[in-house]
Amino acid sequence: MKKKDLILDLFLRYIVLIITMLIGLKLFYFIFSVVTIYPVYFLLGLFYEAILIDGFIIFMSGIKIELIGPCIAGSAYSLLLILNLATPNIKIRKRLKVLFLSFLALLILNIIRIFILSILVVKSMFYFNLVHMLFWYILSVVFVITIWFYLVKRFKIKKIPFYSDLKFLYNLMKKSK
Questions:
Q1: 21: Cα within 13 Å, side-chain hemisphere
Q2: What pTM, to 2 d.p., does this model score?
Q3: pLDDT (tens digit per residue) in 59-79
Q4: Which of 49, 72, 161, 163 is deepest in the core (most CB within 10 A)?
Q5: What is the pLDDT of residues 109-143, one digit of tens each?
Q6: Are 143 and 106 in contact (CB under 8 A)?
Q7: What's the DSSP call for residue 54?
Q8: Number of Cα atoms under 13 Å in the Cβ half of residue 142
């Protein structure tokens, strides 16, 4: 790529990133709430008599499970988008594939996570709290990192988010002196 094209790519990637972040996590919660809650509700309905109330509360076995914003993992989707857009030298088609697959992988893992936690809340409150805290503090980060590294390897992405852009800008400024 020419230097001019690289600068334009950098500018456009960060403009999209800034606009998306200004819209905020509400965008991710809006997009991923329905595609997270309904599959969980469906899966739970296979094993329990489950009722969906107000589109975000699942009632089963006398227990109310409220799927609040953090359950949807909007910040994890946001982090995957940031990693994607902060990585240079990825053609648009490949970038969109990586983004789609990262979101899909996180969605599937999140549905499984909520499903398991919902069963644990019905079976044993002690195990629920323990596993919920484990998912919340450790595994959510591990999910995002694992998804990102897997896709970097699969798609042979050579650049490092942010660092490669900063290095490019530094070299550009050094050459202009």
A1: 14
A2: 0.90
A3: 998 899 999 888 899 989 999
A4: 72
A5: 999 999 999 998 888 777 777 888 887 778 888 99
A6: yes
A7: T
A8: 8
